[in-house]
Amino acid sequence: MTEKRKPFLLDLLRIVTVIIVALLLGFLITVMVSEEPVAAFESLLTGPFPKISMGEAGLQLKGINRFGNWLEDSITLILVGLAVAVVFRAQQFSLGAEGQIYIGALAAGIVSLFISAPLAIHIGLALIAAALAGFIWGWVPGVLKAYVNADEIVSTLMLNVIAIQIYRLLLTQWLRNPDAGYIATEFFPETAVLPIIIPGTRVTIALILTVAAIIGTWFLMMRTPLGYELRVVGDNLKFAEYGGVNTKRTIALSMAISGALAGLAGAHLSMGLLKQLTLNISLGIGFEGIVVALLARNDPKAVPLAGLFYGYLRTGAQIMERSSDVTREVVLIIQAIIIILITAERMLPLLQEWWKKRRHSPDELIAEAQEAADVV
Amino acid sequence: MPPIVELKDIIKVYPNGVVANKHVNFSVEQGEIHALVGENGAGKSTLMKILYGLEQPTGGKIILNGAPVDIQNPHHAIDLGIGMVHQNFMLVPSFTIAQNIVLGREPRRGQFINTEESIRITEQLSREYGLTVDPTARIEATPVGMRQRVEILKTLYRGANLLILDEPTAVLTPQETDDLFEAVRRLVDQGKTVIFITHKLVEVKEISDRVTVMRHGEVTGDAIYTRDISEEDIAQLMVGRKVLFRIEKPEQQRGQAAATINNLGYISETGRPLLRDVSFNVYAGEILGIAGVEGNGQTELAELLSGLKPPTTGEAFIGGQSVLGHGPRRIRQAGVAHIPEDRLTNGVSLPSSIAENLVVDRYYRSPYTRQGVMYPRQIREQAKALMQEFDIRAASYDSPMGALSGGNMQKVIVAREFSSEPVLLIAAQPTRGIDIGASEFVRRQLVEKRNEGKAVLLISADLAEVMSLADRIAVMYKGRIAGIFENGPHLTEEELGLYMLGLKTQPPAELEKML
């Protein structure tokens, strides 16, 4: 057990150190561009958190909506992050989450608007429709990759275009509410809107759904034969083939399952946040999911942490932009620098080496290693 | 003679806790060929990586020409006159030989690379050291032996006085090995010093002046004059116990045909026929050895029979059931196990754990998966049991495969394939590139399976191995079976050699009888 815990602690140490370095660098840039850098940077760092204060009416919570923004954004990021983690783990570089979000939102929207059913059933049907649409939209490039060797990077990017344009075509030609002043459908009926669970925010039961998705994805990857196949295909395709794994089916399914998760993210955006379909529903969050998956090193267990962290950074950046003199562009640059530093792979071995050298003499290291070998 | 280089009290501990070198002392004299031997994982590669600046020692010092140095990286090593030829060549396949040799230090004409000068340099070096290469040939179009000569020339061009050759013969045919040895001797005549890493003892005796033996990260034989020590004694220093070079084989109990191969043919994607009309039976309780010069269809035969490729024509029956053309799982389910030739590509997954590597053929079955749910405990338990039974040395069942030595990796493969209770066991080059101890282990396991009544198909480029293990020997030449023979004292290497080179072919009627 001790063997397993050590690398985890080191990983944590690594991430904390890197975040501190990255934030310092971000602060340095803020100092250069801002009149009041401390206040500006504080809004980035603490913005998304609600402020608790003792007022005349007792305990008061301020900024709960900002806190809500953070969670809403994180839910999307976690779902898309899971989608990307699954497919990247199988070494398939699908970039199709964006299109799958649109298709998922579209399917959820159609079921919401054109079918009437009681609350729980209506929501359930819409969610299934979203996941199924995403599944198919991922399965198509998966089959193309597995059976006719179509490069998945190209095919998924093209399918993104197709998905987004189909969505817009249907929205403008058919689904649009002509009475609205902008291009959008009517608001979804009550029975198809995800119920809010944190008052004062737009945090809905999507939060619970996301927790289930995290557990489900972890279980799929670590506790089912399909998950084993996905991992082995990702680690060494030829080995998987040699061992008798149906690698073509595995590749296609990895992309399809990823699509289903991205489709659910689309449902969260439409049924939870917007409550209607609008022209631009995602604005590229499908690609932000790649950042989340990379931060989590494609490990489903780590995706929620990565998603919450990245969501926090994004929300904080928005607040910084709104409440200080730092422009949006600079905020995005700071955000990007932080991500670059955290994903720098070589950071860990360097730190490990340094940490070991500092603490031990060579002979102590030998003794320690031999002790460990004896335990085994 | 003063030592050209001395490694003193070297300690190396890797970040993952593996101790590769424990207080190692190693010194090489100017102008000698010094063999460094040891089993895989004995620490000899690590020691050389330290000398070449690829790894930093945890403790100890390096003294070069009498002065202590701190070798920070390979560039620095090259500047100090140390060159290393790696096992896996570091060449650009699409470049010509001359381009590869001058790469990074190109002769220039103004802003441009001077191609004629590169070729001239290559030719001159080639003549000077007697290492024949074709300067304008592209690397991808040249045979392995020539690629190795290019690697050596590359280090010479960079001014190396001390050459480290890391298992240089592992990839060579016997003929190429002879050429290499001649070249190495010439290098020494010209004043160079050579460190020769190997685990083949015949080569140690043949080429080296002195030999240093390592085991478990320590020096067990310290710069012994090679003429003063026997192969058996070196082997004992390497392994730590007496090594049996001969394997006892009890009288054969031959049973029914376990596998029947009928008119197997394979045409490559580029349209070349690589297998033609291959037919034979493998009987229960026998080892059928496939001998032949490499590249005569043996690789394809193994790939076809294990399902990695579909045959163009022909069929194979295992227990009366036709099994080809449906991929590896069908074949495995029919009872075929396969130790693949290309261990790192097919046989293992390096990032996955040992335990995961041990279930790739059975993860979907009970007890590993029940009602669609996998049970990691079962996978773990199996790994623990197999690691014990097959003496796999690793920190834990959870260690990544990539952390294992070549010999231990092969043991993992053998453990998985043998424990699947096969009817037919295909072993392709099962001892290639693994150390003495592990080779002995694998060979003994093959004989044991035969004694248990399994059918074993042994495909090996090592003729001595085939002759010491097989009950019958089939020789392949240009994708055909040139002959099948009962193994015994009457069968000589020379006789088989005639069939291997295509000088003799067994008459069809006789071949028919031997199927």
How would you characterize the overall build of this protein?
- The complex is a heterodimer of chains A (376) and B (515).
- Chain A is an all-alpha fold and 376 residues long.
- Chain A is built from 15 helices and 2 strands.
- In chain A, β1 and β2 form a beta hairpin.
- Chain B is α/β, with parallel strands linked by helices and 515 residues long.
- Chain B is built from 18 helices and 24 strands.
- In chain B, strands 6-9-10-3-11-12 form a 6-stranded mixed sheet, with helices on both faces. Chain B has a 6-stranded mixed sheet with strand order 18-21-22-15-23-24, with helices on both faces.
- In chain B, 46% of the residues are buried.
- Classes of the chains: A mainly alpha (376), B alpha/beta (515).
- At the A-B interface, α8, α9, α14 and α15 of A face α10, α11 and β20 of B.
What are the SSEs and their pairings?
The complex is a heterodimer of chains A (376) and B (515).
Chain A: H1 2-33, H2 37-46, E1 51-55, E2 58-62, H3 64-89, H4 97-114, H5 119-148, H6 152-175, H7 206-223, H8 225-235, H9 237-243, H10 247-274, H11 285-295, H12 303-323, H13 328-343, H14 347-359, H15 362-375
Antiparallel strand pairs in A: 1-2
Helix pairs in contact in A: 1-2, 1-13, 1-14, 2-12, 3-7, 3-8, 3-10, 3-11, 3-12, 4-5, 4-6, 4-10, 4-11, 5-6, 5-10, 7-8, 8-9, 8-10, 11-12, 12-13
Chain B: E1 3-13, E2 19-29, E3 33-38, H1 44-51, E4 59-64, E5 67-69, H2 74-79, E6 82-85, H3 97-102, E7 108-109, E8 112-113, H4 115-129, H5 144-157, E9 162-166, H6 174-189, E10 193-198, H7 201-207, E11 210-215, E12 218-225, H8 231-239, E13 257-267, E14 273-283, E15 287-291, H9 298-305, E16 313-318, E17 321-322, H10 328-333, E18 336-339, H11 343-347, H12 354-357, E19 369-370, E20 373-374, H13 376-389, H14 406-418, E21 424-428, H15 436-451, E22 455-459, H16 463-469, E23 472-477, E24 480-486, H17 493-500, H18 508-514
Parallel strand pairs in B: 3-10, 3-11, 6-9, 9-10, 15-22, 15-23, 18-21, 21-22
Antiparallel strand pairs in B: 1-2, 1-4, 4-5, 7-8, 11-12, 13-14, 13-16, 16-17, 19-20, 23-24
Helix pairs in contact in B: 14-15
